[in-house]
Amino acid sequence: MSPSRFVTVGACLGKPTRYSNRVARLGKPTHHNQHQFIWPGNTALQTPNQHYSKRRSIRLRNYDYRRCGVYFVTICAYQKRKLFGTVVEGTVSLSSVGEVVSDEWRRIAQARANVEIDHYVVMPNHLHGLLIISERINASSDQCSDGPLSAPRRGVPASSLGSIINQFKGAVTRSVWSNLLHSRKKIWQRNYYDHIVRDEASLNEIRKYIVGNPTRWHDDSLYVM
Known about the structure:
Distance between the termini: 19 Å
Number of helices: 5
Strand content: 15-25%
Radius of gyration: 17 Å
Number of strands: 9
Oligomer: single chain
Shape: globular
Order of helices and strands: EHHEEEHEEEEHEH
């Protein structure tokens, strides 16, 4: 197993003015954002575990997820199984499946001209990551630098955050099934959690949370033995 890769993209971090503008561009929320996550300084009560048990949509109502902005997402492994690696003394060691997850997460920015990757970490049974949608693309199907991607799932707008996550999860699953497991075992929990980042202070707190996540693994709400 190789060491965990996290906080690997520095291009966005070197341009704070442009990045700050993207956070500010979101403006004030039009609806109470109930999809919170607990990191230092955040007093939210809900966690991803609670969301995944619900069959209804967990997205923010009436919000356009194709909108330019910064999104903090959490995506869990199926049944919180430790498919992606282990944590030893505060350091993540990725499994072969975890390596695929990390590689495909970085590939999002390579495939989509309007998406950037900020801090992220692959944990034993979930991924935390910051995604930046830098411009809105209005198209009948998603586009990437190499041409059209697969058609979005029903009810998920093309080029939206949901479409990006669905295609990331699909790419990981196909690669793992073909090259590693040679079986049809489920890789991902249904759905994902998102938080819309609305100011620089919140952004910096989330970055700290992501970087420090491995050292707090045993206190994590998603921790399993």
